[in-house]
Amino acid sequence: MDSFVYGPDGCWAVEVKNAQNVRRDDVRSLKAFREDYPECEPILVHRGDDRLVMDGVHCLPAHELLVGLRPGVGPGE
């Protein structure tokens, strides 16, 4: 896992992969983390274009995640 982010709006475990295609093996560490911390949402960021959920892990394209960032604004605001 690359980062653990938490705050009043939630908690996320984020891992970044330099790959265009996501494989089951890529989400293994995030699945293990979720077993210990079920309150956290696991997110895998990758270079591809596909947005999917694999074994309960949200897999997001890096460009989509970066475009959606708004400094100083919480999720869903």
Give the structure's gist in a few sentences:
The chain is α/β, with parallel strands linked by helices and 77 residues long.
Task: Describe the fold and architecture.
- Strands 1-2-3-5-4 form a 5-stranded mixed beta sheet.
- By secondary structure, it is an alpha/beta fold.
- It is built from 2 helices and 5 strands.
- The longest helix is centred in the middle third of the chain and has 9 residues.
- Helix 1 links the parallel strand 2 and strand 3.
- It has one domain.
C-alpha end-to-end distance: 27 Å
Strand order of the largest sheet: 1-2-3-5-4
**Assembly state:** single chain
How many structural domains are formed by the residues? 1
Strand content: 25-35%
Low-pLDDT residue spans: none
What does the average pLDDT come to?
Answer: 88
Number of helices: 2
How would a textbook summarize the main sheet? Answer: 5 strands, mixed
Strand segment tally = 5
Radius of gyration: 12 Å
Categorize the overall geometry: flat
